[in-house]
Sequence to fold (210 residues):
Amino acid sequence: MLLIKRLIDLFLSLFGLILSAPVFLIVALLIVIDDPGPVFFRQARAGKDGRTFQVIKFRTMVVGAEKKGTGVFVLKDDPRITRFGKILRHTSLDELPQLFNILKGEMSVVGPRPALPYQIDNYNERQKQRLKVKPGITGWSQVKGRSSLTWPERIEQDLWYIDNWSLWLDIKIIFMTVKVVFERENLYKPPGYDPISGEMKILDSDNDES
Fold:
């Protein structure tokens, strides 16, 4: 079954990259016109078994954003987000380059969202089970609440996915993702939200300059 999942990942990533090639060119051009600088944003994330890899996304914030304001954490209406970056985030097109991560075998189409390395240092033994599978572009926690969930709640949803995984569940999540993207709900948490403690402090890794 895992081999079939990998074959599906390869097919979808290759097909997606070929189909979206014109989109890549247009988006890259608009990013540079809006805010001159790199087209892509790369950031270290924790993958399967905790191995670190560089996640790739379209840049949606000003150059050097992680050294300004709230650092890697992004608030709704964050002034560091570029004008075109707002469009990319609301349409989730900023995630498109992660198809390269899938092609390289670092990610899957469906799986837990990749955490920042420091976050897995806070995992308890149960939560470490989240690292048993490859992270995904979309996942069960994404379609069951996205950023409206606290970080512990998201981990629980991901653990449920791992315990109940099947190819049919992956297919269900992919179709549910389309609905979530079009509804564009739960993109951000309230300002100052701490995803680990549940208190109002900072945001989580899916709302960073990623």
Remarks:
- The CA atoms of residues 94 and 136 lie 14 Å apart.
- The longest helix spans residues 2-19.
- The beta strands are 40-46, 52-58, 108-110, 136-138.
- Confidence is low (pLDDT under 50) at residues 188-207.
